[in-house]
Amino acid sequence: MDVDAPALRDKGKSLTAAGIKSVPWVEKYRPQTLADVAAHRDIVDTIDRLTNENKLPHLLLYGPPGTGKTSTILALARKLYGGQYQNMILELNASDDRGIEVVRQQIQDFASARSLSFGAKFSVKLVLLDEADAMTKDAQFALRRVIEKHTKSTRFALICNNVNKIIPALQSRCTRFRFAPLDAAHVRERLQYVVKSEGLDVDGNGLAALVRLSNGDMRKTLNILQSTQMASQHVTEEAVYLCTGNPMPKDIEQITYWLLNEPFTGSFTNISDIKMRKGLALVDIIREVTMFVFKIQMPSNVRIKLINDLADIEYRLSFGCNDKLQLGALISTFTDARCALVAAAT
């Protein structure tokens, strides 16, 4: 039996020397074994132990993007099947059709076919459904029955970002593991390994900026690093922020100073100028200013109202509301907060 799984072959193959330079670093530095997975050692060790004891259940891995869910399953597949994993695995992701017909035909056919392990250490087949929360409800209900029927010959691994979009009937049939955002220490350690392997010129502030912008997403971090390195031979904090279009911390401090101290017209002119000059998006400014607000000492009631107002502005921006109007709303919100702070001090 030869199951066509090109996506999995691309992810799992050892990269050749000829094509290694053109490969995205996300794939080039994808963990090859369970021991290489950067974090979540408790989860990885549990899955490894279940595999060694031949007690592998159906798996449901969920959590934010870039936290190692797919890498863990691919590393598990390499351990189970060695060089024959492409024959023993069916992998589907969000780019494939996810309707009920896929479950009834492709998944059903693969699960019901006789297993020919070709010398693999683990004879039970594996169905990997990446981004399973994109499946329709009908497809999930159909999958529930397929899982029940073929448990003896097939294991199912479901990967998703939002576990609430997986029906309870499927959740109850799987062992669930939550992959939290990666700690800054794990992101930094992996970045330092990539920097050393690639021979990059990255200073301390540049590395700190990469970790800060990652928000626990290793995939995002490596993409930013590779993009920055292509644009600038010396990876600095400024180069990282310039490449991503995010406002620099010093810009956020300056903007917050204007919001808390300058009159309305002055703030509007200054923020509009820095937006235009540095190509900043208002929604990015609001998100960073919101984080900065948590560092400022102010009465709880003032902070609560300020955060609520900022959330409303960000919500309106997500629907395409006028930037100038929302910038005015931002300045008005801080003007109200400033008046409340003065009143609280007197």
Automatic annotation (TrEMBL):
Entry superkingdom: Eukaryota
The keyword Glycoprotein is assigned to this record: no
Predominant location category: nucleus
A GO BP annotation: DNA-templated DNA replication
Statement: the UniProt record of this protein carries the keyword GTP-binding: no
Role played: May be involved in DNA replication and thus regulate cell proliferation.
Name of this chain's protein: AAA+ ATPase domain-containing protein
Taxonomic source organism: Vanilla planifolia
